[in-house]
């Protein structure tokens, strides 16, 4: 794996991973995640690839899942996971081997940071059990506000995404990400666009902006994309 960021420093400088309930866009991701995994049996073998400080592992444990492992490259985050008795290992996603098979693999706000996202997805596909699925969340910059800003300022999607997080190496639309998943041998079976800020509204009043952010106009607009995917040859 080509490491383009110091993930120990990154962990020390970011608060979002520990504030998933404080900010609406993170809260919407968490709500969508809980809605999905609450429908699954708790005996599933789960891998959180790029687990960070273990937030989603803890959510799963609180919901009764017992067979949950995580991998990450950041020692501070791994140590935080270990303090909470979460099972974690320092490993790059591209180095995941198929000797252990998982029923559910999480990739939460991770793939946009990877130098070789296709290699990472192929490695994770090799670790999916028969009938298993990937749950992926990725920023897509498809909200009304982001589209308006790109047109107004003449910036690319990647330039805009890097204003959000300077370690982003890729920026997809939801449709482009679906095609990317298919290139990796995956089939999207559940898709949801989340967090749709509207142009100008936030400057006028915070409360209406928060309400409107949930309005994705039939799932066509949003800054965050949650998708469940299976192997292309597998049934949904």
Mind explaining what this structure looks like?
The protein is an alpha/beta fold and about 240 residues long. About 35% of the residues lie in helices and about 20% in strands. About 35% of the residues are buried. The model has no long low-confidence stretch (mean pLDDT about 90).
The portion of residues assigned to helices is 25-40%
What is the radius of gyration? Answer: 17 Å
Total domains: 1
Please report the first level of CATH classification, the CATH class. Answer: Alpha Beta
Order of helices and strands: HHEHEHEEHEHHHEHHE
Summarize the structure.
It contains 10 helices and 7 strands.
Describe the SSE topology.
Layout: H1 7-13, H2 24-37, E1 46-49, H3 55-62, E2 68-72, H4 75-83, E3 87-90, E4 102-108, H5 117-126, E5 128-139, H6 144-153, H7 157-164, H8 174-183, E6 186-194, H9 201-204, H10 206-213, E7 224-231
Parallel strand pairs: 1-2, 1-4, 2-3, 4-5
Antiparallel strand pairs: 5-7, 6-7
Essential attributes:
7 strands, 236 residues, 10 helices, Rossmann fold, 37% helix, alpha/beta, seven-stranded mixed sheet
């Amino acid at each position: 794996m080509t490491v383009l960021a110091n993930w120990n420093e990154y962990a020390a400088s970011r608060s979002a991973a520990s504030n998933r309930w404080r900010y609406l866009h993170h809260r919407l991701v968490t709500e969508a995640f809980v809605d999905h995994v609450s429908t699954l049996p708790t005996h599933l073998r789960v891998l959180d690839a790029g687990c960070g400080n273990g937030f989603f592992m803890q959510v799963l444990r609180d919901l009764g899942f017992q067979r949950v492992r995580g991998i990450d490259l950041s020692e501070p985050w791994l140590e935080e996971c270990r303090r909470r008795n979460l099972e974690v290992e320092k490993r790059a996603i591209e180095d995941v081997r198929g000797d252990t098979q998982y029923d559910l693999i999480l990739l939460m706000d991770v793939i946009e940071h990877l130098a070789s996202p296709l290699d990472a997805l192929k490695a994770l596909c090799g670790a999916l059990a028969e009938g298993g699925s990937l749950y992926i969340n990725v920023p897509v910059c498809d909200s009304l506000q982001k589209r308006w800003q790109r047109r107004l300022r003449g910036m690319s999607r990647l330039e805009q995404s890097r204003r959000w997080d300077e370690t982003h190496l890729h920026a997809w639309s939801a449709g482009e990400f679906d095609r990317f998943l298919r290139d990796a041998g995956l089939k999207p079976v559940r898709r949801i666009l989340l967090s749709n800020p509207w142009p100008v509204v936030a400057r006028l009043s915070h409360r209406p902006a928060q309400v409107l952010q949930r309005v994705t106009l039939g799932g066509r607009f949003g800054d965050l994309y949650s998708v469940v995917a299976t192997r292309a040859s597998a049934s949904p």
